[in-house]
Amino acid sequence: MKNNKKYDIDDLLKRALRKDETPPPELIQTVGARIARPQTPVGYAGIGTSVGRDFSDAPQNYKPVRKIKFSFNTVVAITITLIFITCTVFATFYLRVLNPDDVGAKIDKSEMKQLANTNPDVFAWITVSGTKIDYPVVQTKDNDFYLRFGYNKEESRSGAIFMDYRNSKNLSENRHTIFYGHNMLDRTMFSPLIKFSKNEELFKNGMIEIITNEAIYYYKIFSVHEEEPTSGYIRTNFYNDEDYVGFLTDMKSRSIFEKDVTLDADSKIITLSTCVNDIRVDRRFVVQGVLVDVEYS
Fold it and tell me: Does 94 map to a domain?
């Protein structure tokens, strides 16, 4: 054969595949040249790239395709995030759309007397500075009914803000007045009380206001802390003055933050109690204040 002869590549390939014939040197030279310098480099048209590959002969607008690899941990993290977002959206939709009665109602204070005519258990109104706590207060013969019913006596998961049945509706007669409320996921009812566990400034300036038909009672917050339901923090009866002062001293010493407040046998205090809402189902969060002023109607 002459060196300048043109060869049919298909014919050469067919001949190379024959087991009984050795590939001619022309085929080896032709195929070897194509392998050494491919006409279309790997990486074109989405085929993929390799580190160190020479693309000097690629078109000017060519951009190597890079494969994106996700690790197992990345996939898991993305999946968990999507699940969390989905659950949050559903919870908000459920609380505010499917169960609107579970969201705490905002009622003007001027309606308290009208509410009392509808439900005689309504006797007061409570507000707490620095929070959205602004609700009517009820009291009945036990501490169970208003855990499941609203101030209007309609069944509700939010319940109502209610005073301990052992207390007098005349707050001046109580040494220790106790109020209960749920810690709702939509941040209504007594849920905002948890803010006092992390905000010292809110604690230092905190005030509780109770409005009744007879007077307005102002309480300065002096203690915020967690309790077990059976710890005795909701005592209403005391053996004597010494026993009562010991109780006050103990409550003040348990506070997360400190405040210079004088407590003695003549002090009248208020306790707001709600659930902690975590894996510790037997814990309560408590905000306590001491009466500093009474404004009679």
Answer: no
For the chain, strand residue ranges (E) read 122-128, 134-138, 161-163, 176-180, 207-212, 215-227, 269-275, 284-296
Who has greater pLDDT, 101 or 56? Answer: 56
Encoding tokens for residue 67?
Answer: 């494969």
Considering the domain boundaries, does residue 40 fall inside one? no
Residue 33 lies in a domain: no
- Mean pLDDT, the chain, integer: 80
Active-site positions read: 275
pLDDT bin (cut points 50, 70, 90) of residue 48 is very low
Model pTM? 0.65
CATH number at residue 213: 2.40.260.10
Token duo for residue 167: 């207390």
Measured on CA atoms in the order 151, 155, 158, 159, is the torsion positive or negative? positive
Residues comprising the chain, all counted: 297
Q: Which residue has the higher pLDDT, 74 or 120?
A: 120
In the chain, the number of structural domains is: 1
Q: What does each C-alpha distance from 196 to 191, 229, 273 come to in angstroms?
A: 11, 19, 12
Dihedral of CA atoms 238, 244, 250, 256 in degrees, nearest 10, equals 100
Q: Which domain holds residue 289?
A: 102-296
The residue that leads in pLDDT, 150 or 21, is: 150
Nearest to 140 by CA among 156, 113, 121, 117: 121
Q: What is the pLDDT of residue 102?
A: 38
In a domain, 9, yes or no: no
- Nearest to 211, CA basis, from 121, 120, 110: 110
